[in-house]
Design a protein that fits this description.
Cytochrome Bc1 Complex, Chain A, domain 1; six-stranded mixed β-sheet; 40% helix; alpha+beta; 420 residues; single chain
Length: 420
C-alpha cells in the first residue's frame, strides 16, 4: 500500500497541488498519479442478469427478482456537461426537466394521473456530468399501464414552448441562487480550478445565461441526439416475465431508427501545471476548504484504490481526518473526503468547514494526512477494515430493486459491464 501511495504523493508532500485558501471559501486541488490496490467491489452475478442488444443498438438488461412486487425500469442515456459545449451547457438538464411535461397524446396532468392511479411514478433527471435517466417505479399490477405511459414519455415528448419557458425561468433562478450557498459556491470554485476553461467547470451564472437563450427547437434537436438506441441502456429489475419485457421494448424503442451518431466527448483532464489557488470572501462565521486531486476514472484498474483511500482518510467519524482534525485537535466543524467515480476526468477531494482562526492549522493538517500516506504504510488491520467496510456498503446499497437497477444500467453505460 505504501508504494501505491508514493505514486499519488511525493515524499515532500503533494505534487502539482492546487491550493485554494480563502477568508470565507477555500479550495485546494492537486494532480493525481496512478495507484494500485486490491479491488473492493463485490461482483454482480452475471447469470442472474439477462442482456439483450437489439439490432438498432439499444441495450436491455433484465434482472428478475421474485422477492417483492416492486418493478423498476430505468432508461439511461449519455448526456450532460461531458457532451455539451460552452455555448449550450445546461441543455441536458433543461431537457430532462421538460421531458415529463407532455407527449403527443398525453399532457402533464395525464401522465401524472395515469401513473399515480396504478401506484406508479415516473421521474427524470441528470445523474452526473455524463449521464441522465428516466425511471419508472411501479407495482407488478401497475406495470402494463405504467410501462405504456413511460414508453410514451421516452418516445413522443413534445417539449411545448409554454413548458420550456416555465422550466427555463425556474432553472435560471435556481442557478443564480446556487452561488449564495457557501458549500455549493466553494465546490463550484473548486470545479472551475480543476477543469479550467472547460464546460465542466463553468460557474452557475454562465450556465444560467446559456439556459436563458435555449429554445424549444434546440431542445428537440438535442433530444434526437441523446435518445437514440445506441446511446441508451434500459435496466429492468423486479418480479417480471423477461420475455414480456423484451417484447414490449422490441415493439417500441426496439423499432426506433439508429438516428444521429453518438455525441463526442468534449472534455478532457486539464494539463498538469503549477498549484492553483482561489480565494473568495463573504460575510460568514466559517471557512470552507476543499483540497482535491485528479483521480482515476471508472474502468481504470487503479480506481478501486481510491475507494480505499477515501474510506481511510474521510469516510466517517472513525476516519483519519475526522479523528485527527476534529476529535483530537478541534480544528473542524466538519471534515470528510469524496471520490467521484465517473467515466470522465475525475477527482478526489477533502472538504472542511472550520473557524477563520483555525484555517492555517486546518489546511496544514489536511496536507499532513495526505503526505502521511506516502511515508507510513497503512497498517494491515486498518486496510482490512476499510476493504471489509466497502464490501459491506456495496452489498447494502444493492438491497432495493431501484438501487440494483441503477447500478446495472449506469455501470453498463460507463462500459463497466455486469461483473463489476
Amino acid at each position: 500500500m505504501k508504494s501505491s501511495m508514493n505514486k499519488l504523493f511525493s515524499k515532500s508532500g503533494p505534487r502539482y497541488g492546487i491550493l485554494v485558501g480563502l477568508v470565507c471559501l477555500g479550495l485546494l486541488a492537486n494532480f493525481y498519479q496512478p495507484v494500485a490496490a486490491d479491488s473492493t467491489s463485490t461482483p454482480q452475478t452475471p447469470s442472474a442478469v439477462i442482456k439483450k442488444i437489439f439490432p438498432n443498438g439499444l441495450t436491455l438488461l433484465i434482472k428478475p427478482n421474485p422477492a417483492n412486487e416492486v418493478v423498476v425500469v430505468n432508461a439511461f442515456a449519455r448526456m450532460g456537461a461531458l457532451y455539451e459545449t460552452k455555448e449550450n451547457r445546461g441543455i441536458s438538464k433543461l431537457m430532462q426537466r421538460v421531458l415529463l411535461k407532455g407527449t403527443t397524446t398525453r399532457n402533464a396532468q395525464d401522465i401524472v394521473y395515469q401513473t399515480e392511479s396504478v401506484g406508479a411514478s415516473i421521474d427524470s433527471g441528470i445523474d452526473s456530468f455524463s449521464s441522465g435517466s428516466v425511471s419508472l417505479k411501479t407495482t407488478l399490477n401497475g406495470l402494463d399501464t405504467g410501462l405504456k405511459v413511460y414508453l410514451d414519455v421516452l418516445l413522443h415528448p413534445t417539449f411545448s414552448a409554454k413548458e420550456v419557458a416555465k422550466e427555463k425561468e425556474q432553472m435560471v433562478q435556481q442557478l443564480l441562487a446556487a452561488k449564495d450557498q457557501p458549500t455549493g459556491a466553494a465546490f463550484q470554485n473548486f470545479l472551475g480550478l480543476f477543469y479550467g476553461d472547460q464546460q465542466l467547470g463553468m460557474p452557475s451564472e454562465a450556465i444560467a445565461k446559456n439556459v436563458a437563450t435555449i429554445t424549444r427547437e434546440d431542445i428537440m434537436t438535442w433530444y434526437h441526439h441523446i435518445y437514440t438506441p445506441a446511446n441508451m441502456v434500459i435496466s429492468v429489475v423486479g418480479k417480471v416475465d423477461p420475455q414480456q419485457i423484451e417484447t414490449a421494448l422490441q415493439q417500441s424503442l426496439g423499432k426506433r431508427s439508429q438516428g444521429e451518431k453518438p455525441l463526442p466527448v468534449t472534455s478532457s483532464l486539464p494539463s498538469r501545471g503549477s498549484d492553483r489557488q482561489l480565494i473568495t470572501t463573504r460575510d460568514s462565521q466559517a471557512i470552507f476548504l476543499i483540497l482535491g486531486y485528479p483521480a482515476p476514472q471508472s474502468g481504470d484498474p487503479d480506481y478501486p484504490a481510491m475507494g480505499v483511500i477515501n474510506y481511510i482518510l474521510g469516510s466517517d467519524m472513525g476516519s483519519r481526518l475526522f479523528v485527527e482534525l476534529r476529535d483530537k485537535k478541534g480544528l473542524a466543524y466538519n471534515v470528510s473526503t469524496g471520490y467521484d467515480i465517473a467515466n470522465y476526468p475525475s477527482y478526489f477531494y477533502a472538504f472542511m468547514a472550520t473557524a477563520p482562526a483555525n484555517y492555517p492549522a486546518a489546511k496544514d493538517g489536511i496536507l499532513k494526512e495526505f503526505a502521511r500516506l506516502t511515508t507510513e504504510p497503512v497498517p494491515e488491520k486498518e486496510l482490512e477494515v476499510a476493504k471489509t467496510a466497502l464490501k459491506g456498503s456495496y452489498l447494502m446499497e444493492h438491497e432495493t430493486n431501484s438501487a440494483q437497477g441503477r447500478f446495472l444500467g449506469s455501470y453498463e453505460l460507463m462500459g463497466l459491464g455486469l461483473s463489476l
